[in-house]
Amino acid sequence: MTGECIVKTENLTRTFGSITAVKDLSIEINRGQVFGFLGPNGSGKTTTISMMLGLINPTKGNVNLFGTKLCPDSLKRVGTVMDTNGFYPGFSARDNLLIFGSLHKPADRKKIDASLEMVGLASRARSKFHTYSMGMKQRLSIALALLDDPEFFIFDEPTNGMDPEGIAEIRSLIVKLASQGKTVFLASHLLSEVEQVCTHLAILKKGVVIRQGSLTELLSKDNRGELEVVPSDFDKALSVLKDAGYETRIEKSSLIVKVHEGDAEKISVLLVTGGVPIREMRLSKPRLEDVFIEATGQN
How far apart are CA 181 and CA 151, in angstroms? Predict the structure, then answer.
């Protein structure tokens, strides 16, 4: 049922001695959402995922999965892609899935073949794992996560090591899973990819959620974009805009100006009255990268 709460964390906190890795983290993820989880290195993403999977206990707060407290039964409905270290290097991709797929129930060879096909490994199904590239190893991790047809996926950097074609394929797979009513939790540092697939997201800084909501809401709340200006006199235009307090840079054959709503008209008047005719002017909408940088202070 659309709108069903799949994951809910309440005041989730984890300390390690005097260090607080995650503090009072409260998020809610509903069925069918692709929920992006973003933050600089060391912001608490992996610690949060570990608590969501029951790998470490929270110092405070709790995690609910599918409307119940975290337990083995609810975790059976979760597929995870975190790393590739557990596979047997001397066995083929298919044999690895046969082994891991039979840990808690008989392995289904048809499902194994379907999973390998879905992640683009069917042609290399019988190749040894140690001959795989990093991207191929990531694909095998995803194939393993798909085996039991879980309702909720946790993907931690699923495109690590992949080439652009592989990244595009995994992006399509995530969109397909969501269209089937699956729910995806995606931790990634590739902001352009997150912006293309995620419906909702949370931004973490030093263990604290500082932004969260739907992607549309977050981009509109930022209320900031970039104005591309082609003036008749670059040096004079740059001087006028900087004197007026606008953050401006030269990019190729344009001036790029950071603007908020209503600034475009002000800048147009400012340049013309300053004796700088404008040849072209285009306004671009804010990107997720802009929101992330402003929220986290990353430059």
Answer: 8
Res 154 pLDDT > 50: yes
Q: Is there a contact between 294 and 222 (Cβ–Cβ < 8 Å)? A: yes
Strand-pairing partners, residue 224, are 260
* pLDDT value, residue 1: 42
- Average of pLDDT values for 162-187? 89
DSSP 3-state of 3: coil
Architecture of the structural domain at 223-296: 2-Layer Sandwich (3.30)
Specify the fold of 5-220.
Rossmann fold (3.40.50)
Selection from 45, 13, 10 nearest residue 29 by Cα: 10
DSSP per position, 86-106: TS-TTSBHHHHHHHHHTSSS-
Pair 126, 87: CB distance under 8 Å = no
Q: Report how far residue 194's alpha carbon sits from residue 45's, in angstroms, rounded to the nearest whole number.
A: 15
Query: Which of 277, 178, 264 is CA-nearest to residue 228?
Result: 264
Look at phi and psi of residue 173 and say left if phi exceeds 0, alpha if psi is from -120 to 50, else beta.
alpha
Q: Which comes out higher in pLDDT, residue 204 or 298? A: 204
104-127: average pLDDT: 88
Q: Which helix (H) or strand (E) holds 248?
A: strand 248-251
- Residue 140 Rama label (left phi>0; alpha psi -120 to 50; beta): alpha
Domain ranges of the chain: 5-220, 223-296
Per-residue pLDDT, 85:
63
| β-strands 208-214, 248-251 pairing | unpaired
**How far does Cα 37 stand from its chain's mean position?**
5
- Residues 233 and 255: their CA atoms lie apart, in Å, by 11
| pLDDT beyond 90 at 224 | no
